[in-house]
Amino acid sequence: MSEIFDTVIGLEVHAELLTNSKVFCTCSAEFGGDPNTHICPACTGQPGALPVINHRAVEFAVKAGLAFDCEINRYSRFDRKNYFYPDLPKAYQISQLDLPLCINGKVELSTGTVVRLNRIHLEEDAGKLTHDDYNGESLADYNRCSVPLIEIVTEPDIKSAEEAAEFVAKLGQYLKYLGVCDAKMQEGSIRADVNISLKRKGDEKLGERAEIKNLNSMKAITRAIKFEEERQAEIILSGGTVEQETRRFDDNQGRTKPMRNKENANDYRYFPEPDILAVTFTDEDIEKIRATIPALPKERKEKYINEYKISENDAEVLTSEKYISDFFDDTVAIYPEYKNVANLFLTEIMRRVKETESEEIPFSPEDFAEVVKMADKNTVNRNDAKDIIRTMFEEGGKPMEIAKAKNYLVVEDNAAIADFVEAMLDEKAELLEQYFAGKQNIFGFFMGQATKGLQGKATPRSIKEYLETAIEKRKNK
Amino acid sequence: MKTIKELRGMLDKKEVSSVELTKEYLDRADSLNGEVNAYITISRDEALDEAERADKKIAEGGALPLTGIPLAVKDNICIEGVRTTCASKMLENFKPIYNATAIEKLNEQGAVYLGKTNMDEFAMGGSSQTSYFGGPKNPYDTERVPGGSSGGSAAAVAADMCAAALGSDTGGSIRQPSSFCGVTGLKPTYGTVSRYGLIAFASSLDQIGPIANSAEDCGIILNAIAGRDRHDQTSRDTGVSDYTSLIGESVKGKKIAMPKEFFGEGIDDEVKESVFAAAKFFEENGAELVEVSIPTLKYAVSSYYLLACAEASSNLARYDGVKYGYRTEDAESFDELIKRSRYEGFGREVKRRILLGTYALSSGYYDAYYKKAMAVRQQFIKEHKSIFEKCDVMLTPTAPTVAYKCDENIDDPVKMYLADICTVTSNMVGIPTVSTPCGYDKNGMPIGVSISANHFEDAKVIQFADCFEKQFSKQAARI
To answer: Which residues of A touch B78 (CB under 8 A)?
Structure first.
């Protein structure tokens, strides 16, 4: 198929902002809660109630805009989008049409594709409906009403399902870095609408597009796009024309289905929201917000590769999430053995945080730095160091205390080495003869015996040193 | 008929208690309401409770200007737990779960609420006859309308069924009924009084204001209800601490703008005469009359109705039968539920305006209607700005006619709309305007004169109205 057609995709991604309160009232914006417990006259559309803008939400949206290289409109306005639905108590959504907060940004993908952002605007979420078929009722929960959302709208620059998925993942990663969205797709913090059309290779003109609404997992995004590519290709190849329509994705059946066509499209009758004043910024305001943006993955990754000499793959993993990268940075700030820190981090910490999904490392960078150092300096064996990390994860405690309690500390007891090695060589005189006769692997046997017998009293290196000299001496005798 | 100022003196001197006063007003309201229909709800028990609390406050020496003063409140201003209908079947049994900010502020003063006053349904009209509860009548002639949409409030003040009242004004809804009922009504500068809890008609035009027996009383009430409110972003801290502070200052040397378009065709001769006489009074007191022009006035009514209805179509969309208010029975689907609830719950005029506004905002028509009307609004702001650069206040008739018979005009919406010509620009520009009685026609019906000033100069219009009132002999309503 891809030999005949190019896929053209534009996305509209909705991301819920992590503000404490809602965007147009002071109710809690927290996810969940008993139905209709985070509500007030304003967010339930009581007669006479008015919206009041949450400036924190504005700041978050601008932060996102700056992170994606957007221009920030110095004068921005809100508009009403009017439509009737039981989850929308005012029967209009306060959104932004002509003058959104942010315009003209971009996101680069690993494929080299640069996805241009048309805009990022701020708006309010709607409530949630639950249909009780048994009693023939629909129940409305308005907790989510007026939770702040940003809508990120791309130009049709995305060329495949994989690129779309990477784009959404990258948005989520950046928004999380910024601390403006938790990016939990399973809780609906990020939802995407996909606009997709096909055009014959070499053609300039775009085909008619279908819009697939409200995709709430990576899997749904890729599956829906792949299904649409096939559906539209079949229509075109069989001589038909793709209809401009809105579709939804049925997760169970793995296919998209029509919702409404162009004729039945809503006329939202947008007009300027008279209850909310225009939002204006000075250059100084914008710089203040910019100053709150942390170093972003791209910058960190480059630093890890170029300055820390960490491989690209490892750098990718270490910058996947801000808390991970922050922890790593804090550790190497204390103990700048970048590669050693990275190695233990990747094998011992990454595996566990991925298992628990807790996004919390239960010990400090100081503690971790100490463990890496202990392993590097042979204060403990490398395997024991790993066990110390495991213990810190599972039971807590400080590295040195754990090492002591578990008897992991290596003490260089030269007398003990001498006693043990000399006794061993006396006892195994026959083997030593065989070694002298050329059986090289017998050295390994001696090493093994000694390391085992001297556990906790000597490092392998000093054992090896003593063993080599002792054997040499006996040979020359 | 006593002013708030007079009642305050009586209460403070213990010549009368708030409970006694409240009872008097309640009794009069009860006995006259059958005829005047000024109130949709009279809340006797609550009023007497509030009066009792007020008496305690007075006894403790903590009386504020409105403590114990019996007021009426237009039925589109929310009082927690008190039925607030907007004179609509849609909200026939609706009880708000919160107080409007203006009510909260009056509560802080310990004011007493006698009840909720009749009005045009959702404040849409100039006669109050679109009320679902039957139209209120004019206390000067009960065959005539009290004006609208705050007709119940104006009639209640004129008939002495309350000491003063709150109204709301979107295109003249405080001033025109005040003019029709021979009382004083003030539309404050947009943003002076919080709109939180005022059931919205057209958000960019709506403003709560007082209707009272004097301009000074209007100032006393405005002192209580004005101020920036964290619940209303469009509310402002006006920096004025006392709206009555200019009262008594001379008008000598002040310039009064007389826009010629307000004295042309369509204005009754008797109205013109009275208003000119009022202008003459100011001239005799040393003010200078300056003829000015508002050339855009011919577009005032059409652009006002486009904007007001556009906003209304959105503001009234929330009445869908889902959350509160009227819900149709046995709807099979959500679409049917909302269509039928709205069809059955709204009256004709409300539906007409929702349709007009929906049309004006529809794709393909937005530029021709809404956008153009916004441009006219900008032009009005410019023209008024240049007037107030030269002049202190502007003087105009409040309405082209006196109150008409209840069966006149009602069936001709365009004629009704055109009658708003004298009042709508004040809302479009956002400036303060007060209407005060300036004469009576051959039938004894009151005529009002309007005085406007620049934004946030509410104290100035109160000063001018007070100056006129002090020499004007009012004729009490016949009822």
So the answer is: 47-48
Chain B partners within 8 Å of A80 (Cβ): 314
Q: Supply the pLDDT for residue A417.
A: 87
Q: What is the predicted pLDDT for the residue at A1?
A: 47
Domains of chain B, with CATH numbers? 1-479 (3.90.1300.10)
B79 interfacial to chain A (CB closer than 8 Å):
no
Q: Of B311, B320, B358, which has the smallest distance from its Cβ to A274's Cβ?
A: B311
Chain B residues with CB under 8 Å of A81 CB are: none
Q: Is B119 on the interface with A (CB under 8 A)?
A: no
> Using CA atoms, how far apart are residues B396 and B450, in angstroms rounded to an integer?
5
pLDDT per residue over A355-365, tens digit each?
877 788 999 99
Report which residue type is found at B366.
Y
Cβ pair A275:B234 closer than 8 A:
yes
- For tokens 């005047």, the residue is B36
| Tens-digit pLDDT profile for residues A301-351 | 999 999 999 999 999 999 999 999 999 999 999 999 999 999 999 999 998
Under an 8 A CB cutoff, do A48 and B366 touch?
no
User: How many CA atoms does the CB half-sphere of A475 hold within 13 Å?
Assistant: 13
* 0.90 surpassed by complex ipTM: yes
Contact A84 B86 (CB under 8 A): no
Tell me which of A309-323, A347-361, B154-168, B357-371 is least confident.
A347-361
pLDDT tens digits, A28-42: 999 989 999 999 999
Q: Is the pLDDT of residue A456 over 80?
A: no
- Provide, rounded to the nearest whole percent, the portion of chain B with pLDDT above 90: 95
Structure letter (DSSP) for residue B368: I
Backbone angles phi, psi at B438, to 5 degrees: -130, 5
- Structure tokens that stand for B420 in this block: 């708003």
**Structural domains of chain A in order of their starting residue, each with its CATH number:** 5-285 (no CATH), 295-405 (no CATH), 414-476 (1.10.10.410)
Q: What is the pTM of this model?
A: 0.91
Residues of B designated as active site: 74, 149, 173
Nearest one of A136, A82, A21 to A273, comparing CA atoms: A82
The verdict on A424 touching B (C-beta cutoff 8 Å) is: no
